[in-house]
Specification:
The complex is a heterodimer of chains A (about 120) and B (about 110). Chain A has about 120 residues and is mostly beta strands. Chain A has no helices and 11 strands. With about 110 residues, chain B is mainly β. Chain B starts with a strand and ends with a strand. At the A-B interface, strand 4, strand 5, strand 9 and strand 10 of A face strand 4, strand 5, strand 9 and strand 10 of B.
């Protein structure tokens, strides 16, 4: 069974640009969550989608946005990039809508460097 | 102050040692507690999941939760070099969906 797939794995952008990251969840999983991981702050929750609806959002500025498609694939977008957006962006999928149901399966992440 | 505090380490132990990793938290709404392991350049993978106070054992791993003290622990017995990784505690509140609040992680190195 294929795991969570994130593309691209690595990318370099300059300040002011925008970036779109993609996540394909495990087949059959309907929940997709996004996290930002930095050395100083660790893993921080960005948002969660379930059946194409955003269910939860973390404390990030509006420059961070996401969406989920009918096939459960998800994208996140960061506009007007800042140096502080350099991070590993992790996508996680789950079969159900709540952590009460079990574990999140993480992808290997997309490492974004902003110059 | 962060909702979840975790000593970043690094922690270096000899092979075969018992490792104790800990997190404290301030949000009493947290009811679900997890430990993830993250190898370098990989995504986190779930090691242990519990939703009640007490101990839960899985092979060489034991997770301990003390809700009255807002303190959770992960014990690794007979540690192996393959256990060298960053260990992340994570927790969630009911109704929070898949929103997890993570500790910053403890880097563990098990030496031969």
């Amino acid at each position: 069974k294929a795991g969570v797939t994130q593309t691209p794995r690595y990318l370099i952008k300059t300040r002011g640009q925008q970036v779109t990251l993609s996540c394909s969840p495990i087949s059959g999983h309907r929940s997709v969550s996004w996290y930002q991981q930095t050395p100083g702050q660790g893993l921080q929750f960005l948002f969660e989608y379930f059946s194409e609806t955003q269910r939860n959002k973390g404390n990030f500025p509006g420059r961070f946005s996401g969406r989920q498609f009918s096939n459960s694939r998800s994208e996140m977008n960061v506009s007007t990039l800042e140096l502080g957006d350099s991070a590993l962006y992790l996508c996680a999928s789950s079969p159900l809508a709540g952590v009460e149901a079990g574990e999140l399966f993480f992808g290997e992440g997309s490492r974004l460097t902003v110059l | 102050q962060k909702e979840v505090e975790q000593d970043p380490g690094p922690l270096s132990v000899p092979e075969g040692a018992i490792v104790s990793l800990n997190c404290t938290y301030s949000n009493s709404a947290f009811q679900y507690f997890m430990w993830y392991r993250q190898y370098s350049r990989k995504g986190p993978e779930l090691l242990m999941y519990t939703y009640s106070s007490g101990n839960k054992e899985d092979g060489r791993f034991t997770a301990q939760v003390d809700k009255s003290s807002k303190y959770i622990s992960l014990f690794i017995r007979d540690s192996q070099p393959s256990d060298s990784a960053t260990y992340l505690c994570a927790m969630s509140a009911p109704g929070g969906g898949n929103k997890l609040t993570f500790g910053t992680g403890t880097q563990l190195k098990v030496e031969l």
